[in-house]
Structures are given as structure tokens and as C-alpha cells.
């Protein structure tokens, strides 16, 4: 989006200071080109050999790192957090990007497995070439993504040998600094320092985030967490476990939620809520290094097994108080926001098409992914603004020429209706450019129709700008 790119990119990269002003200008240009041509290759986005070669040189430049590229966006996230009030949810999760390369060693690997070998009639061991990315997505309790607070990239080269180490000693005795799990703690430290008000933040993670060191660090930093658990830890005086104590707790309330069955149909399920504050003890072998903690354990379970879908069985640990059904439902709603980071990762893979990138080394790929993180967040933010703040002014996301083009190209429904000029109406017009039918029963537009519509809007605005220039001359 020619004019809009300059506006939002300038805001997003205002605090980004690379070592050379030429590098700053190149980053601004690259972000605009990749945003205007979302999901396309670097040559397609750059359009000519000079810009394409400049892009390749930028990603190969040893003086530029992924932290430098994301620095402006992270600072913009901090400003958006400071401008909001109330609780902020910091959602962490890891995703894998897989690539096909003739020299996979130049990128690294994510896992090793066995595949079929039809010619020899057996199995063939293989190494999956790729990168891992651990994101900390910051959202409001209404689900509006404010940006990324921290991002960590790595491959399994760094932790080579730790799996073999765990076969010889108890995994709980392996120091956290020597495990991949340390990423959860690193991102918490970085975001807590970034926002400067850790008491406002609630860190949300799935069962992979069930790490006792993480709980202790949250206490030390003065922040909070909401984590789905998978470990039945010792509790009380050390002679029983969390599961045994929770079996003795009476049901504290019930809550109805909407779920989808295997066929995609929506139905209502009722879960029983059980909650209690327990004295949870550290893993065996770590009693001297970590203290016991008083945590709230919240269970949300369906009493019976449904026929057409898995049974809902959530076990959540938090340091926040849960004293009644209302506060239990609030914590469940906050944990349900964890799916936002999954949606962000989907945009990165399906919209930005990260895995189609042809850069040959991990260092260059990581820098490209860092730029695309900003592009992906922008699309996600626009979609959620339509749902969370639909009556916002269109100027927060679009320029005057873009709104004028949308009014001209995508007419309002119903000639007798007064023209609505809020952000939601223009987001729907962008989605209609991307193939959204806007029928009465259709759900709100999703990411796919939005990024397709934004690409079409870019081309139309470019044509309108060239026409105005010709008329002016």
C-alpha cells in the first residue's frame, strides 16, 4: 500500500536504529515491499535486479541481526502496552519452519526421523531442515494483538547431545540453562524488563510451558502466569500429589462453552470447574535450589465423554487467585486467548509463506523472518481491530487515498443507507476485494481474504496514484 506503507512503517520503525542510515532506509523499503506483496518471493516484491540485489545484501550483512530488525517493532509494542489499561496477556509458543535445501547443514535441523524407502523396501532415516521460532505475542484481554515483545530463533545444533544426556540422568536434574526450555524463561525476562510493569502481565503457555523454574522466575520478577499443566507434582507435605488433592475438592461451579465437533459443527458443552490453592513442591533433585510455591490449580472438565470429539479436560496452574466461579471463568477465557499466537504463526506460514523462502543460510533466513514477523502482525492486528474496536477511525490503519479508492471500487451495500466511515466498514471492503462475500450469515473476514484484499488494494492505489500524476502533468 504505497502511501499507507510509508505511514505505518515509519511509526513501526521509528525507534529502529541500525549502524548505518543506509541500512535504515533499506529496512524501511524492504518492509514496504514485502508488505505490499505479501507471500511473494523477494525478486517479485523488489521488481528489479538492483532492489533485489540490495535485499540479498541486506540479509547477508553481518552488521545487521534479527534483534536490530525487530527492535523498532518491539519498542512500538511497548508504547502500545503503555497506552492501554488493565491486564496484558503475554502468550508464548514455539513453531517450526521447514525448508528443502541441498546443503541442510547451512540452515540446521529441527528433528530427526525415519521415512519410508520404497526402492529398498524399508525405512530411511532423515534430518528435517529448518528453524524454530519462539514468540511472545502481547494481546489485550479482548484479544487485540499489540505486537511482539520478544522473539527467539534457534536450531537443534545448539542443543545437540542433550537428548543423550537425559538417557543417563534424570531429566529434572539437567540444569534449565542447558535445555531448550530456557527459551520460556528468557522471553519472560526480556518482556518483563521491556514493559517495566510486570504486575500487569500474565504469561500464558501450553503444556510445554509446565516448567517449575518458570513459576519461580515469575515470582522473582513480580509477574503472573497461567499455564496448562501436564506434570503431577508433589504437593502438601510431600507425601501426596496435586492430582490426589484435587480429587478431594468439590466442584465449585459449571460453565457453558461453544466447541466444534469433528465435522466442524458448533455445539455447547458444559464443564465442571474445580479450583483450590495448593502447596506445590519442586521436583525431586531441585529442592535445595527452588522453594515450594502456593499455586492455584484450576480444573475444567466435562463430566462425560462426548461421542464425536475429545473430552474437554483442562488442568491449569496459576499464581492468580481464583475464589469463585466468575474468577475461574475469567482465567479460562484468558487461557483461551492462547490460540491467538497459533493464528499468528499460521499467518507467517500461509500468508507470508516463510517456508517458500530460498535464502541459503540460517542467518539470512532469520533476518527475513524477522521482517515478515512485522508484516504478519500488521495483518493480524487489522483483522482483530475489526472485531475488537470496530468503530475506530479508519485513519488509524488507512490513508486518505486508500479510503477514497475503497469507496470508489467497493460501493456500500444499499444505496439508501448512510455511508458508514468507521474502520470496520473499510476492513470489510478490503476483505471483499480478497473474495469475502459479505453475506448475512458469513462470519467476520479472516486473515486470508484480508491479505489478498490488501495486495489488490496496493495495486489499485498504485494505479490511482499514477493516474493522478499524469493528470497533474
UniProtKB/TrEMBL annotation:
Transposase Tn5 dimerisation domain: residues covered: 375-465
Gene3D superfamilies: Tn5 transposase, domain 1, Transferase Inhibitor Protein From Tn5, Chain, Transposase Inhibitor Protein From Tn5, Chain A, domain 1
Organism: Azospirillum thermophilum
Gene Ontology MF terms in the entry: DNA binding; transposase activity
GO terms classed as biological process: DNA transposition
Descriptive protein name: IS4 family transposase
Residue ranges of every copy of the Transposase Tn5-like N-terminal domain listed in the record: 6-64
Domain Transposase IS4-like: residue ranges: 290-374
